[in-house]
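Tutorial handout. Part one gives the primary structure; part two gives the three-dimensional structure as tokens.
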Amino acid sequence: MNIYNNKTIFITGGTGSFGQSLVKKILNSSNPKKIIIFSRDEFKQYKMQIKFKELYPLAFNKNIIRFFIGDVRDYQRLNLAVTEDVNILIHAAALKQVPICEYNPFEAVKTNVLGAQNVIDACIKKKIEKVIALSTDKASSPVNLYGATKLAADKMFISANNYTVKNNDPIFSVVRYGN
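Part two.
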């Protein structure tokens, strides 16, 4: 059984390389009810719409893929976009470039830490079934700010399970990959 069949999937940072690959995998292997792409990059959304309309015209004709402009830093917009019918939220939005994070440390904190808390809060409020945060190998024994912000976010997502104790509350998980 595919976990995405007949489910609504919400992907923060969905226009990034990971998000686009995940959407392809979902559309190639399952029958989702809806995929919501949440991203602050208007141009990437435009480019992804063109590309995916060509690759998956049926998904567009059935209005399965939806795009929302928004930033995980903006709780009100995020909370509006995450609707009660979302079953699975995959949090892939982050500032990821190490030199840029080092040069702009609080911007990395605002996106990677405060944005993570906004995702957690919205998911608890809307009782999303499963929440998966994407992490990085740089969060293991971090030596730079990017790794430190992702480690903090990882800890926050796992700790969010302490606030969700009922059967219909979200289950929070973190997955790491190396790049």
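Part three, for discussion. Residues 15 and 44 are 6 Å apart (CA to CA). The helical segments are 17-29, 42-55, 57-61, 75-81, 98-103, 105-126, 145-159.
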